[in-house]
Amino acid sequence: MVMVKYEVVEHDGGWAYKVGDVLSETFSSHEAARKAATRAAARQTIAGSTDGIVYQDKDGQWHQELADGHDRPSTEVIDEP
C-alpha cells in the first residue's frame, strides 16, 4: 500500500504542509498548518466510487483505466516544529 506523508514545515514567514515537493498555502501558525495537514491526510483516505479515468502520459499517449475508488493510500502527518 502507498504511504503519503504530509510534513509540517516553515514556509514564507509562516508554516505550511508539504507532500513530496508540493507545498500548501501558508498558515500563520504551526498549529494551524498541522491541523490543515491532518484534515487533508484524513480526506485522502476516504473511499470514493470506482470509475473510468482517461489520462495522458509524459509521451503524449492517452490511456483509459478503471480506478478503484476503494484503493486509498495510508497517510501520515510528520510534525517537527
Helix content: 10-25%
H-E order: EEEHEEE
Unreliable stretches: none
> What percent of residues are in strands?
35-45%
Radius of gyration: 16 Å
Shape: elongated
Strand order of the largest sheet: 3-2-1-6
Number of domains: 1
How many E strands?
A: 6
Largest sheet: 4 strands, mixed
| First-residue to last-residue Cα separation | 28 Å
Provide the residue-averaged pLDDT: 94
Number of helices: 1
Helices and strands: which structural class? Answer: alpha+beta
Q: What would your notes on this structure say?
A:
With 81 residues, the protein is α+β, with helices and mostly antiparallel strands. The chain has one domain (3-79). The protein is 19% helix and 43% strand. The protein contains one helix and six strands. The strands form two sheets. It has a four-stranded mixed sheet with strand order 3-2-1-6, covered by helices on one side. The chain has a two-stranded antiparallel ribbon with strand order 4-5. Strand 4 (51-56) and strand 5 form a beta hairpin.
Topology:
Blueprint: E1 3-11, E2 14-19, E3 22-23, H1 30-44, E4 51-56, E5 62-67, E6 74-79
Parallel strand pairs: 1-6
Antiparallel strand pairs: 1-2, 2-3, 4-5
Keywords:
single chain; about 80 residues; alpha+beta; four-stranded mixed β-sheet; two-stranded antiparallel ribbon; about 20% helix; about 45% strand
In short:
The protein is of the alpha+beta class and 81 residues long. It has one helix at residues 30-44; strands at residues 3-11, 14-19, 22-23, 51-56, 62-67, 74-79.
